[in-house]
Amino acid sequence: DPGFFTFTAYLDPKNILRTLEEITTEILFLAVEPPTLEEIEKNIQHIESHDDYQETIDSDARKIGHYEFMYNNPNYHETYLKILKSIKPNELTDVVRKFFKPENMALTLLTPNQAHLNEWVKDYENSFNDILKLPAAKSSSDKKNMLSKVYKSHPHKEPKIIEKNGSRVVF
To answer: How many Å apart are CA 7 and CA 5, to the nearest integer?
Structure first.
């Protein structure tokens, strides 16, 4: 079972490939280097605060409907948060390496024009398969070597990574 994971992005259709490349880079990065505990905690806080700010009858109904449909439990959100809070950084890297394989991917786009993504799909498949050939990093020097291989296998220019306040931003 490949599971269910979704990325949702609202963007100008002319930026589809750029957006997919940025998402790909982050997935490849997570396949090599686990996020910090601070990054995980910050994202959990973001999810919790998003729910607090989205408290309308409409958003409550949407959330309840989503959890009822996906998990057969309208209150699954509390369970989801407990699961997120129990995740360890290395577990996230293991999940990415196990489930984010190209053969598990289904890409759905709502766009006014046909997006030509064949090249992007091949690029993702090749890059991800190259990552899976690498052994797990045990030291920071191993991680640096693996990351340089990620960027060499990814034909786009090496992204600029800025880390600030426990968050990683990829440009």
So the answer is: 7
> DSSP H helical segments within 10-117, as ranges?
16-32, 37-53, 57-71, 76-86, 89-99
User: Which pTM value belongs to this model?
Assistant: 0.69
Residue 141: count other Cβ atoms within 10 Å of its Cβ: 9
Could you read off the pLDDT of 41-62 as tens digits, one per residue? 998 998 888 766 667 888 888 8
pLDDT in tens, 123-156: 888 888 887 777 666 656 666 666 666 555 554 4
d(CA 96, CA 92): 6
Beta-bridge partner residues of 164 = 167
| 38 Cβ contact list (under 8 Å, min separation 6) | 166
For residues 83, 87, 92, 98, the Cα torsion angle rounded to the nearest 10 degrees is: -50
